[in-house]
Amino acid sequence: MSLSDIGVVGLAVMGENLVLNLESKGFSVSVYNRSPERVTNFVAGRAKGLKIVGTFSQQELVASLASPRKILMMVKAGKAVDETIESLIPLLSPGDILIDGGNSHFPDTIRRMKRVESAGLLYVGTGVSGGEEGALKGPSIMPGGSAAAWPVVGPLLTAIAAKAPDGTPCCSWIGSDGAGHFVKMVHNGIEYGDMQVICESYHLFRELLGMDAPSIGEIFAGWNQGELESYLVEISADILRFKDTDGAPLVDRILDAAGQKGTGKWTSFAAMDEGIPLTLITEAVYARSLSALKEERVAASTVLAGPDSTKKIQAASLIADLKDALYASKIVSYAQGFQLLRSASVSYGWGLDFGAIAALWRGGCIIRSVFLNKITEAYRTNPELANLMLDPFFRDRLAAAQAGWRRVVAAAVETGVPVPAFSSALAYYDGYRTASLPANLLQGQRDYFGAHTYERTDGARGEWHHTDWTGHGGNTAASTYTV
Fold it and tell me: Which of 13, 164, 221, 400 fits a disulfide with 237 by CB distance 3.0 to 4.6 angstroms?
């Protein structure tokens, strides 16, 4: 019996589709699932007649694989991954490779790589983006972990990845230990931000112009033909134009209470640990949390007063301004995300290639867009770029968009329509371009009540001072630290 090229553990939607993708690229695949009926149904159904072998124990799975064995784990992030690793380690030989293709938290991947390598094996934690369709037809793949594994698994992962418009596979080696899953986490955070600013655009069209969903969908479809072309704008247009069985827009019957799986929250936590102001993405996370308070919001809507606004909005001007606001806010979202990648790259010693990361997001993944070509160019031109907003293209585009962006935020404030992502993005832009912020007073406050010290404008950076503000505090200062 010939041995399979790779094994896959876990036959949920993503697992099944990745198996079919691998087989379609010429690889033979052995599959295992904790529930044996899933294996039976898959082999007799979608996998019938293909180079896919069903196995019914981990021992049988391992025995069916060519050496060095490669096993892709597509199980639920968390405890299930650890349990799968621990049950497989005794069955494997030195040089065999375990691959986690789920949405694992990057600190877990760092820990797991150490555990697996201590057993003489190799470990890869890889982000996979594109949903079930991407898994089947070609996702964006972000692998990291044991460097020695890449020459072995690279040909398989590259073969099944999406192709960018220029034909480049949307898969490249990210870096050591948790780098791949960190990059996927930031991808998902940017996805949160993108989705929120699109939703805020829809909300403003609805509330300020009274437009129905299909009409808004037509505007989004038009936007998707130009510089805002992206998967998320495309599907938003489709959703808004989709009709229920009675011909009414289906979106109007979807409850406005959003769910989340945690990757956006992880991105915000990581940004706080790194001291990076990830304001737009964090507001997008909070917007979902606020939406979940549906019953409280309904009750509050009858009690809390809003503005008594009679502001007249011209449809043509709002459409143009919202297009600018959406584009500018997307720039901010990516600028913040890449600042987080830049900081973490130094903290964890990953040596991330930001141009390569932007390039592999150009196809297959949820945030794929024509916009990413410009980000790739920016970082290939200047790999040390401190902030994406400083790149000449994005700097000029922000300057051109800011008047409309400001009008959108002002109109939303005047009429009481919440736009947390648009407004936080604009506040970040204004804060980043401001040479002197009021943090001097803040440092004075901290020193006054806690002797936390401060630096002086007429002294060198790193020289710390304390003032006895009341005359009763003495000269003892607290130690300084940076979060």
Answer: 221
Place of tokens 């005047």: 414
**pLDDT above 90 (res 145):** yes
Whether 280 contacts 428, CB under 8 Å: yes
SS3 sequence of 350-411: CCCCHHHHHHHCCCCCCCCECHHHHHHHHHHHCCCCCCHHHCHHHHHHHHHHHHHHHHHHHH
Tell me the whole-structure pTM to 2 decimals. 0.93
| Band (467; pLDDT cuts 50, 70, 90) | very high
In the block, tokens 């909300």 appear at 203
What confidence tier does 1 reach under pLDDT thresholds 50, 70, 90? Answer: low
List, in sequence order, the alpha helices (H) in 210-309.
Answer: 213-223, 231-241, 263-274, 279-291, 294-300
Question: Which of 191, 265, 330, 374 is flagged as catalytic?
Answer: 191
CB-neighbour burial class of residue 306 (10 A; exposed 0-12, middle 13-18, buried 19+): exposed
Contact 203, 411 (CB under 8 A): no
Rounded CA separation 441/466 (Å):
14
Structure tokens at 400: 């051109």
Angle formed by the axes of helices 179-209 and 392-415, nearest 10°: 50
Lateral strand order in the sheet of 97-100 = 52-54, 29-32, 6-9, 70-73, 97-100, 122-129, 140-145
DSSP-derived pairing of the beta strands 70-73 and 97-100: parallel
State the Cα–Cα distance between residues 99 and 71, nearest whole angstrom: 6
On whether the CB atoms of residues 138 and 20 are closer than 8 A, the answer is no
Alpha helices (H) along 166-249: 179-209, 213-223, 231-241
Locus of tokens 């008047």: 403
Bridge partners, 97 (sequence order)? 70, 122
Q: How many CB atoms lie within 10 A of CB 247?
A: 6
Catalytic residue among 70, 184, 323, 374: 184
Q: Kindly tell me the sign of the dihedral angle through the C-alpha atoms of 442, 437, 386, 143.
A: positive
The tens digit of pLDDT for each residue in 419-452 reads 999 999 999 999 999 999 999 999 999 999 999 9
Report the 10 Å Cβ neighbour count for 222. 14
CA distance 94 to 121: 5
Q: Is 191 a catalytic residue?
A: yes
Is 256 exposed, middle or buried, given 0-12, 13-18 or 19+ CB atoms closer than 10 A? exposed
Q: Provide the 10 A C-beta neighbour count for residue 229.
A: 14
For residue 15, which amino acid is it? G
- Known catalytic residue at 234: no
